[in-house]
Amino acid sequence: MMQLPAFYLKMSRDDSWYMDRPHFHESVEFLLPVSSGDQLFVENEAYPLRPTVLFVLPDATLHKTLASKPYKRFVLHVPVQTLDFLSTSQTNLSERIHNTQYMVELGDRAEYFRDLLGQLEKRCEAHSMEFGADIEELFLLTKFLIEALSLAKPRKREPELPKHSMKSNSLQISAVLDYLQEHMTEKLTLDQIASEFYISKYHLSHCFKAATGFSVMEYLISSRILKARLLLQDGVRVQAAGEAVGFQSNEHFIRTFTSMTGISPKQYARQFSEGDRQ
């Protein structure tokens, strides 16, 4: 019988919550605030943390959370393999997730979804070996996924810029983001990037942080790691992958990749290929 990768669900509470840097997961994350927080930065957009919305973050989605006051939330991580197992030709969960907006408005159904995740959390914590307990747990997970994703709206193919975040003090941050993506493989410095837009590096840093929640360099490095993941999945050797995304030394690439993902690029590549590619 096929063994499904375990999903993870937890109710968390912090008096304040500040992520030092953006991060991403190999699994899909569902974030359901139970209380209001400050903001969730996803890719290049900022969203308010409030208890009437659900956030659906596909695997490898760069995000960062800021909360300066007590903040409670449900966090559910579901491996892509589990989603594929639960999917059918008519109901493809992974495809739906990658084609819907990050924020799902729950409205007056928010309490229902909190109760549903609360039931699922109790099931997970019980670790029951009783007959049927595992199927009931999988049923609750499937029910949550189907009902939540049924409320999600399609992602815009040509997304509009966030009304409040992508323009700061006459500097169009979207242009900076485009520049970083286009020149990612080059040896970039903050001074060099600022000079491209005829502003000081201090002004660039301030505007970029205000608009995206990330510093310029942490956004650049995170983007490089995300691209390196895809190269490693395609069988590109570790050193070649690092060089292809702009790292100047193999040691720096390995150290940064391991810090951000929790495993070395060599170990990561082995998940997709049996060959030793380092």
Describe what this molecule looks like in 3D:
The protein has 278 residues and is of the alpha+beta class. The chain folds into two domains: 8-151, Jelly Rolls (Sandwich); 167-270, Homeodomain-like (Arc Repressor Mutant, subunit A). The chain contains eleven helices and eleven strands. It has helices spanning 80-86, 93-98, 110-126, 133-151, 173-182, 190-196, 201-212, 216-233, 238-244, 250-261, 265-270, and strands at 8-14, 17-18, 28-33, 39-42, 45-48, 53-57, 63-67, 71-78, 103-105, 167-168, 171-172. The strands form three sheets. A five-stranded antiparallel β-sheet has the order 1-8-3-6-9. It has a four-stranded antiparallel β-sheet with strand order 2-7-4-5, with no helix packed on it. Strands 10-11 form a two-stranded antiparallel sheet. Strand 4 and strand 5 (45-48) form a beta hairpin. Helix 6 (190-196) crosses helix 7. The longest helix is centred in the middle third of the chain and has 19 residues, at 133-151. It is globular. Residues 174-271 form the HTH araC/xylS-type domain. Keywords: DNA-binding, Transcription, Transcription regulation. This is Helix-turn-helix transcriptional regulator.
The count of strands amounts to 11
The general outline is globular
- Count up the domains: 2
Percent of residues in beta strands: 15-25%
CATH homology superfamily name of the largest domain = Regulatory protein AraC
Give helix and strand order, one letter per element, not per position: EEEEEEEEHHEHHEEHHHHHHH
Query: How is the biggest beta sheet arranged?
Result: 5 strands, antiparallel
User: What is the CATH architecture term of the largest domain?
Assistant: Sandwich
The level 1 CATH classification of the largest domain is Mainly Beta
Counting helices, strands and paired strands, the structural category is alpha+beta
Any idea of the CATH topology of the largest domain? Jelly Rolls
pLDDT below 50 for ≥5 consecutive residues: which ranges? 158-166
- Average pLDDT figure: 87
Calculate the terminal CA-CA distance, rounded to whole Å: 34 Å
Domain HTH araC/xylS-type: 174-271
Organism: Oscillibacter hominis
GO molecular function: DNA-binding transcription factor activity; sequence-specific DNA binding
Pfam families: HTH_18 (PF12833)
